[in-house]
Predict the structure.
Amino acid sequence: MTDATRPHCLVIGVGAGTGLAVVKRFVDGGYQVSMIARHGERLQSFAEEVPHTHAYQADIDDQPGFRTVLQQITTDHGVPKVVIYNAALATFKSYNELDTADLERNFRVNASGLLIAAQQLAPHMVEAGGGALVVTGNTGSLRGVPSFIGFSPTKAAQRILAESLARELGPQGVHVAYVVIDAMIDMPMVRKWQPDAPDDYFAKPDDIAAEIYHTAHQPRSAQSFLVQIRPFGETW
């Protein structure tokens, strides 16, 4: 149910790590939050766990379906004041093992999906008086390494797309920012991959969410586009 007393935030790409932490931070900040994810059952469990949230299942690779869900969210809860684009797909293989179909699928989710979200939502945000669009990025958006060849090119395209949006939408009142998360995120499956890593090697989802919330609410006189965050133990 819509709570008209709370501004509307939309988080696209909600999993058990950064996405859910961002949802909780915006709820704590007084927002009602619409959530989009591919896995409907898990998303519904999040909605039952966190008050003031609304669950919408969507596969961003299904572009017409994704547009329809975005339209439905706006109809149900109004134009979002803040949009967080956290959706991502990745394939980690050598160049001679990578199927181009996987690269193209990842591009559709990581880059084309962001464009669709902007096309569907940004004009209404401008008309409503402005807001913020924050995109979560990865170190792969800044450099390429062999095993990331199915991921980094799509995230680099996403970063440039976000910059293009920032330059066009900023003067119209919509602050677009790109947050590079240069980190291994502290989640159980990641800990299993690196069981001997020290605690300060991992970025905490709640801390990432706090920085995303801060970026979305920067004053107009001091706004960032490219924000890079990493834990104390990360080499760079």
The CA atoms of residues 185 and 203 lie 5 Å apart. The first strand starts at residue 8 and ends at 12. The radius of gyration is 17 Å.
